[in-house]
């Protein structure tokens, strides 16, 4: 494969934040930007990320199916997994369930109590309307079907719809969705805006020869 092209036949100049490798690289290397992304989606403050890793491979069963996570981040008592989903498939809810089970097995060590397992936020950023409801964000927890009280297992699945048109979201998330849909909107943002910082990282990476070589190696 030629260095100037990805395996999907695109020029490196066309690679943006929606590319899985670019997405995971930019946010893994910049914990502050990752924190801002998480806060824009979850609508609560995260004091500090204590651990951040991209393209994390998880396989808790020797001969079972494993997973590769775009972003895995931790803060005190909480774990966040963020996935960029470009291609529409109908098994994403089941995939969310499987990812959670694999992460739970990884996060709880031998001899630890179940009460020690951290809260888990499984986030999929989808470039399509998965549920056909036009909502920007859909959030799911386990509920009692009789009285709708939460189970309280500390797990939540969140689906961001970049094709959404309805629902209240933070201005920060709306700006990020707009950027995903049209990267040129960054030209209208203030220089200090965190989306501008994301775009600067994207531009730097796709012009970086070492990063290009690493991408080629990954796709061989």
Model regions low in confidence, pLDDT < 50 over at least 5 residues: 1-9, 58-66
Looking across the biggest beta sheet, what order are the strands in?
1-2-3-4-6-5
This entry's quaternary arrangement is single chain
* Helix proportion: 25-40%
The biggest sheet amounts to: 6 strands, mixed
The beta-strand count equals 6
Number of helices: 6
- Report the end-to-end length measured between terminal Cα atoms: 7 Å
The whole-number mean of residue pLDDT values reads 86
Strand content: 15-25%
Order of helices and strands: HHEEEHEEEHHH
Supply the number of structural domains: 1
Rg to the nearest angstrom?
Answer: 18 Å
Tell me, briefly, the overall form.
globular
- Find the structural class using helix and strand composition: alpha/beta
What's the SSE blueprint?
Layout: H1 20-28, H2 31-42, E1 51-58, E2 67-75, E3 78-85, H3 92-107, E4 119-126, E5 137-140, E6 155-161, H4 171-181, H5 194-206, H6 209-218
Question: Care to describe what's here?
Answer:
This protein is α/β, with parallel strands linked by helices and 220 residues long. It has one domain. The chain is 32% helix and 20% strand. A 6-stranded mixed beta sheet has the order 1-2-3-4-6-5, with helices on both faces. Helix 3 links the parallel strand 3 and strand 4. Helix 2 crosses helix 4. The radius of gyration is 18 Å and the shape is globular. The N terminus is likely disordered.
